[in-house]
Amino acid sequence: MKINNLVERFVSQKTERLQSRKAATQQQNKGIIQMFKSDLTIPYNLALMVLNWSMVSFFFYLLNFFIKYMPGDIFINSIVSGLCCFAMLV
Predict the structure, then answer these.
(1) Looking at beta carbons, which pairs linking 26-33 to residues 24 or more positions away fall under 8 Å?
(2) Are residues 48 and 66 in the same domain?
(3) Confidence (pTM)
(4) Rg of the chain in Å (alpha carbons)
């Protein structure tokens, strides 16, 4: 009797775990469109991140074009501009 009862409990625990995993995966697999619709902070943060990235990239690459118009030696200005990139990584 005890062994039969243990087997039944084991099987019931396994089926409960399997059902809970299925429910969790169904919630995770909602899809990206439904995720954007359900939480409005995600597209808002994404739009701000894209705007910030584009503005920083534009300024960084535009600075390289206008380095020849900066006062001082162009070679020193280029070296300082290059070293600023390494200082940012540290």
Answers:
(1) none
(2) yes
(3) 0.48
(4) 29
